[in-house]
């Protein structure tokens, strides 16, 4: 009974950490796609994530559109959570190289999930409310446009049918399966344990 409660507690903590990691990567992608900073949803994401990003902003400067402080914060939080979970669950210190690789896999996985769900949102919105002015709808379109525009140049819409989301979905699944899968296996830490 006690071990089941402990496992449930670890799963809950890991889920909360993964939600926060999701928000950090959303902040990273919103900045990278130059989404409207003054959008109320963007502001909320920045406010929630600023306490962990701010300490790193002094020495991890952005490179172009890419905010390294946000990536660094996500990496550190995930690495600490993996070490803590493995320590509690197995009573052993995981190899630091494996922790670093698993943390990178978690960041990549979170970014791919954000794009996956944003694409689904974009497709639904394009059917039901193509001219939506809700802040959430605007952010979704701003978030996915940088990855959709290059694909649309190669595969233009066929009349009313836009095939570019299908190509992007396939690319996301390939990257997830090949890159994230390879990183997870190379980490030597259980993917389920670290929340991938």
Describe the structure.
- The protein is an all-alpha fold and 196 residues long.
- It has one domain (4-194).
- The protein has helices at residues 2-32, 40-57, 68-90, 96-128, 135-154, 164-187, 191-194.
How are the SSEs placed, and which strands pair?
Layout: H1 2-32, H2 40-57, H3 68-90, H4 96-128, H5 135-154, H6 164-187, H7 191-194
Helix pairs in contact: 1-2, 1-3, 1-4, 2-3, 3-4, 4-5, 4-6, 5-6
Task: Describe the structure in brief.
The protein is built from seven helices and no strands.
List keywords for this structure.
single chain; about 200 residues; mainly alpha; 7 helices; about 80% helix; membrane; transmembrane helix; transmembrane; CCB3/YggT; YggT family protein
> Would you tell me the structural class of the helices and strands?
mainly alpha
* N-end to C-end Cα span: 26 Å
Number of domains: 1
Radius of gyration: 18 Å
Strand content: under 5%
Number of strands: 0
Binned, the helix content reads over 70%
User: For the report, how would you describe the main beta sheet?
Assistant: none
- What sort of overall outline do the alpha carbons produce when their principal axes are compared? globular
Q: What low-confidence regions span 5 or more consecutive residues with pLDDT below 50?
A: none
**What is the chain-wise order of helices and strands?**
HHHHHHH
| Total of DSSP H or I helical runs spanning 4+ residues | 7
| Residue-averaged pLDDT | 84
Family: Belongs to the YggT family.
InterPro entries: CCB3/YggT
Keywords: Membrane, Transmembrane, Transmembrane helix
Organism: Modicisalibacter xianhensis
């Amino acid at each position: 009974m006690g071990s089941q409660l402990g496992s449930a507690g670890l799963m809950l903590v890991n889920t909360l950490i993964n939600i926060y990691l999701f928000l950090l990567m959303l902040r990273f992608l919103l900045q990278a796609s130059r989404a409207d900073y003054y959008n109320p949803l963007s502001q909320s994401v920045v406010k929630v994530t600023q306490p962990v990003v701010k300490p790193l902003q002094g020495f991890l400067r952005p490179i172009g559109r890419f905010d390294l402080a946000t990536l660094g914060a996500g990496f550190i939080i995930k690495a600490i959570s993996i070490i803590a979970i493995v320590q509690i669950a197995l009573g052993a210190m995981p190899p630091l190289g494996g922790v670093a690789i698993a943390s990178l896999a978690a960041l990549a996985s979170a970014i791919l999930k954000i794009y996956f769900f944003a694409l689904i949102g974009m497709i639904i919105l394009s059917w039901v409310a193509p001219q939506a002015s809700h802040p959430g709808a605007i952010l979704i379109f701003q978030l996915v446009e940088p990855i959709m525009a290059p694909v649309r140049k190669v595969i233009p819409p066929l009349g009313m049918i836009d095939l570019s989301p299908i190509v992007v979905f396939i690319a996301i699944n390939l990257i997830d399966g090949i890159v994230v899968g390879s990183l997870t296996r190379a980490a030597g830490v259980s993917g389920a344990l670290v929340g991938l």
